[in-house]
Amino acid sequence: MRWPTLITTLLLAAALAGCASTRETQPPRTANEELLLSKAVDEATDQIDPTVASDSNVFVDEADFKTESDRHYAISAINDRLLERGYHLVPSRSEADTIVAIRSGALSINKASQLWFGIPSVTVPVPLAGPLETPGLDLFRTIDRTGVAKLGLSFYDAQTGELQDTIGPVYGFSHLNRRKILMVSWTESTLLPAEAAEQAESTEP
Q1: 16-55 b/e with 16+ CB inside 10 Å = b?
Q2: Torsion of CA 57, 70, 62, 80, to 10 degrees
Q3: Which residues make Cβ contacts (< 8 Å) with residue 15, sequence separation at least 6?
Q4: pLDDT tens, position by position, for the chain (205 residues)?
Q5: H-helix or E-strand containing 119?
Q6: DSSP track, 68-82
Q7: What residue range is the signal peptide (predicted)?
Q8: Geometric angle at alpha carbon 94, from 88 and 100, rounded to 5°
Q9: d(C-alpha 25, C-alpha 69), whole Å
Q10: For residue 50, which of 83, 75, 14, 28 has the smallest C-alpha distance?
């Protein structure tokens, strides 16, 4: 069989097989996107271990925590970690012994898609009809999504402004990787602990 004939046959088979994509959600963001970011934040905040006396009254300064993604969750996670370490959070600078200035260097998702073996989709100009995109044939494709969080904290005396401690930058990562060989696909993920992953699988239709 000649190569043009083989390629045409494969493309027709892929077109006839068809594909389906289901998105059962109304919000603009998927649960996977939110889990990628929150998991990365959790991994980063777990590394926060200040040397400042743990019974101090601290005020968390959010002014330099500038990020467009999941800002509230990240700040809440930092506050929760400080509470776990024994600090007392106060609502104003005047009540604080220590100011904690928090900052975000990264809080986003990277995506990499790689077709290792197969035929990519091709846009073919069709006279009087405009461009036509032929279906691709994925023999082996990988799609990797990585959530990344980079956080930093500075502790300084509320009265003198003297630096007491610096934490970070601390980094957190999460992964959601998809592998596909012909019509078989599977997912590798760090988003959920084993027990939660089993619960999620048991609720799938």
Answers
A1: eeeeeeeeeeeeeeeeebbbbbbbbbbbbbeebebebeee
A2: 10
A3: 135
A4: 554 454 444 445 544 445 555 556 567 889 999 999 999 999 999 999 999 999 999 999 999 999 888 999 999 999 999 999 999 999 999 999 999 999 999 999 999 988 778 777 778 787 777 787 777 777 788 999 999 999 999 999 999 999 999 998 999 999 999 998 887 888 899 998 877 776 776 655 5
A5: strand 98-119
A6: SSSHHHHHHHHHHHH
A7: 1-20
A8: 50
A9: 19
A10: 83
Under a CB-based contact definition with an 8 Å cutoff, are residues 100 and 82 in contact?
Answer: yes
Structural tokens at position 142: 């990988």
Can you tell me the distance from the alpha carbon of 149 to that of 75, in angstroms, rounded to the nearest whole number?
Answer: 12
Residues in the chain: 205
Q: What is the DSSP letter of 94?
A: G
Structure tokens at 74: 């990240």
Place of tokens 């220590």: 98
Both tokens of 164, joined, read 């007491």
3-class secondary-structure state, position 202: helix
Interior CA angle at 167 toward 39 and 81, to 5°? Answer: 50
From its phi and psi, is residue 70 left (phi > 0), alpha (psi between -120 and 50) or beta? left
Is the peptide bond prior to 27 cis by the omega test (within 30 degrees of 0)?
no
Residue with tokens 């330099």: 64
